[in-house]
Design brief:
Elements: H1 21-62, E1 68-77, E2 80-84, E3 90-95, E4 98-99, H2 108-119, E5 123-131, E6 137-142, H3 149-155, E7 160-161, H4 172-184, H5 197-200, E8 216-220, E9 241-245, H6 248-260, E10 266-270
Parallel strand pairs: 3-6
Antiparallel strand pairs: 1-2, 1-5, 2-3, 4-7, 5-6, 8-9, 8-10
C-alpha cells in the first residue's frame, strides 16, 4: 500500500550514552568481589567438611571390633571396668547385654566385689561389640578360665539381662541364665520386687520414690506412629520404657501429652 501524500517513514534510533570509564571500573570491582565471596564460602564449606571427616575417621579408627587381651586394673561397679592394654593405654569397658545395680542400690557392693574377685588384676580377653552413648567400649569379657564375666554376673543374680532392642534382645544365653537365677531366687532375685537400674536412673519426678519399684510403665513403640502397626507387639521387652510412674493416672497423663504432640505410639502397662 502506498503511503499517504505528505507522510514519510521515520526510524526512531535511541543512542546509548557511552559509559564513563570509572563506572565500568566499579562494575568490574563488584563482579570481582562477588566471585571472591563465592570462592571463600566454598572453601569454608570444604574446610568444615574436612574437619568433620577427620573427626569421623579418628572415631572410627579408635574403635575396632577386633578382640584383644588386657589386664583389668580397676572396677567401677559390677558391669564397668578399666583394662590396661599391651601398649599401656587404658580402656574403660562396659559389659555387653547386662545391667548391674547402681551405686546406692541393694547388691551394688556385692556385684562390684564379685566382678573384682573374678577379674581384678587378671589378664582377660575383651571382645568389643560397639560403643555406648558416652563413647566407652561395650564388650564381652572372657575370663582366664574360659567363662564369660557378662554371663557369670547374670547367673549368680547380680545383674539384669538388658533385653530391649538396642542392647541384647536375642541373647539366648543371658535369657536362660536370668531365668535360672530368678527361679532359684539367687542374688537380687531374693527380693520380691527388685528395682532395675534403668528405673533407678529415671529422671527425678518420674516416681515418688526410688526405693520401691514403680507400678506403671510408659512405653514407646520402637518406630510405629499408627496404632494399627503395633497391634501384634505384645511382649513387654519389645517396647522401650521411657518413664515409670506410681499410678495409672500419672502414666496416662504423660501418654496424652505425647499423643497431643503426635509422637510415636505409646502405652501404659503394669510393671511385671
Amino acid at each position: 500500500m502506498s503511503e499517504p501524500v505528505g507522510t514519510s517513514s521515520r526510524l526512531l534510533v535511541v543512542k546509548r550514552e557511552p559509559r564513563i570509564p570509572c563506572e565500568r571500573a566499579w562494575e568490574l570491582v563488584q563482579r570481582l568481589g562477588s566471585a571472591i565471596r563465592r570462592i571463600v564460602r566454598q572453601r569454608a564449606v570444604l574446610a568444615l567438611v574436612g574437619v568433620w571427616l577427620t573427626i569421623l575417621v579418628g572415631v572410627v579408627g579408635a574403635f575396632t571390633t577386633a578382640a584383644f587381651e588386657a589386664t583389668v586394673v580397676d572396677i567401677a561397679d559390677g558391669d564397668t571396668l578399666t583394662v590396661l592394654r599391651e601398649d599401656r593405654t587404658q580402656v574403660r569397658v562396659r559389659l555387653h547385654g547386662i545391667d548391674a545395680p547402681e551405686n546406692g542400690q541393694p547388691f551394688w557392693v556385692k556385684a562390684k566385689a564379685f566382678t573384682s574377685e573374678l577379674a581384678h588384676r587378671k589378664v582377660v580377653r575383651v571382645e568389643p561389640t560397639d560403643l555406648d552413648h558416652d563413647g566407652h567400649m561395650v564388650a564381652y569379657v572372657r575370663l582366664p578360665h574360659g567363662r564369660t564375666l557378662n554371663h557369670e554376673l547374670v547367673r549368680v543374680g547380680l545383674a539384669w539381662w538388658r533385653r530391649i532392642r538396642w542392647y541384647a534382645p536375642h541373647d539366648a544365653a543371658l535369657e536362660h541364665l536370668e531365668a535360672g537365677a530368678r527361679g532359684a531366687g539367687r542374688g537380687l532375685w531374693a527380693d520380691l520386687r527388685p528395682v532395675p537400674p534403668w528405673w533407678w536412673r529415671a529422671p527425678v519426678g518420674a516416681t515418688t520414690t526410688r526405693q520401691a519399684a514403680p507400678r506403671w510403665l510408659l512405653q514407646v513403640s520402637p518406630g510405629a506412629t499408627d496404632p494399627g502397626e503395633v497391634a501384634g507387639m505384645g511382649l513387654l521387652q519389645e517396647w522401650p520404657v521411657v518413664h515409670a510412674y506410681d499410678t495409672p493416672k500419672a502414666c496416662e497423663r504423660a501418654r496424652d501429652k505425647r499423643l497431643n504432640r503426635a509422637e510415636r505410639v505409646t502405652r501404659c502397662v503394669p510393671a511385671p
